[in-house]
Amino acid sequence: LWRFGYSARLLKTNHFRTAASNTSFPAVWTVLAQYSGKIPGLFVVVKKNTFFTMPETVEDKADLELYSPHPDVRGMTLLNREAFKRTVVVPVLKVKREIVHTLLKSLKHTVLQRPGLKRVVEDPEDEDSRLVILDPQKIPEFSLGESEQEVLKQLDVRPEVSKYNLELTYENFKSEEILRAVLPEGQEVTSGFSRVGHIAHLNLRDHQLPYRHLIGQVIIDKNPGITCVVNKTNIIDSTYRNFQMEVLAGESKLVTKVKENNIAYELDFSKVYWNPRLSTEHGRIVELLKPGDVLFDVFAGIGPFAIPAAKKKCSVFANDLNPESYNWLLHNCKLNKVDNKIKVFNMDGRDFLLGPVREELSKGLPILKEEQKTSFHIVMNLPALAIEFLDVFRHLLVGEPCSTAGLPTVHCYGFSKHDDPAKDIQERAEASLGTSLDGRCSTYLVRNVAPNKEMLCISFRIPADVLYKRPCPEEGKEQASYVARGFQATPLAV
Predict the structure, then answer these.
(1) Does 313 share its domain with 427?
(2) Range of the domain at 94
(3) pLDDT tens by residue, 392-429
(4) Does the model's pTM come out above 0.85?
(5) Where does a domain end: 133, 168, 203?
(6) Is the keyword Hydrolase in the record (predicted)?
(7) Are residues 397 and 368 in the same domain?
(8) Could you tell me if 131 and 164 are in contact, meaning their C-beta atoms sit under 8 angstroms apart?
(9) Longest Cα pair distance anywhere in the chain, in angstroms?
(10) Is 377 in contact with 411 (CB distance < 8 Å)?
(11) What are the b/e assignments for 469-486, b being 16+ CB within 10 Å?
């Protein structure tokens, strides 16, 4: 626990000590999750997308068959649903049909609770009776406890537990259970995925690749609405931030529609970047904006910052180098009826900053008065490279600095594998800007991208001594010439 940064007070908590005293280490995470938010200083994320096959214990064996497909499916690479059938012996109570409902309520903690499995079945020997299936884990050795016997006595039910052959099929097993049964024993099982409309996006590991088509089909079977499963085949390192992918199962339809923070977007997932895990971050930044503010989105993608900002009545300048992202950005602006509120560009990020952004700041900042509430924000969401673009702000403007309150705020994203990622991001930003940001910036952990790799956002107002340079005749002519070359937004009507 110390390795994961949990405080000493956690180990001293009576609730935790009692719950965990007889618990194996893997189960400790479940205990921690139960108390997350109840114990001050404790926050636990239990990953649902990955788990490991743990060695069986004696206590597990009675319940193991109920949650495991037939062992012969081990090593299967082409899905055969019939092979998952198995019959297990479970405890049942014979009760009169008219008291079944009452019994289920009275023994709700003892009755089998398994999605997809009936708790009550016909009695083949008596049409006036029903068989109520009990949880074999709660009825060890098919013997009822005192509390259960007391309930049955009150209902005038004979406390005799019988054995019943329950047939389990592919439909009765969860995707994790199916994959754990198929993959080599002890191998990591991944059933988690990113959902992008009707598409499930996986990042499979090498040992899972021989089973990739089976995994894809299982995900389609077990997740209503998913009709296509893809696997990323390389790291996102291209100029346009998209990646090669393989369709594992389902239809090869990669144009999809998603909804994020009550705004709809359409996109071709094979040609543009979209990550549903950034929904909270998109909302966080937009929440910082006020109506009338100005947003410059340097790497806008299909518009998850730009479009909600425009709906909030901000003035928005959105840019993306990828022609596909640019076209889908135009499309989504029209889809959300903000095409007259956003100026859209298809430029290199550096040229966008040196051209349209500098032009707008040159016009807007000098006339900004102290009593005005307008703020300028620059979002740079290209974590692999954005920090390297910060040097553009060095003497971007020529003239006398405006008030400190009017200086643009930058929200720049980056990846870090450092032991102290916040310090690492700040130091790299300072190196690009050529000044210290101590006491003048904040860092926010966006998400964990991979083991020992974090995505962070550093926010700061551009220091006046970085942004401005006093003019000299030659520099003034050079800047005027640059702006006069005409970095104009492409009309949305085109």
Answers:
(1) yes
(2) 86-168
(3) 999 999 887 777 778 999 999 999 999 999 999 999 99
(4) no
(5) 168
(6) no
(7) yes
(8) yes
(9) 103
(10) yes
(11) beeeeeeeeebeeeeeee
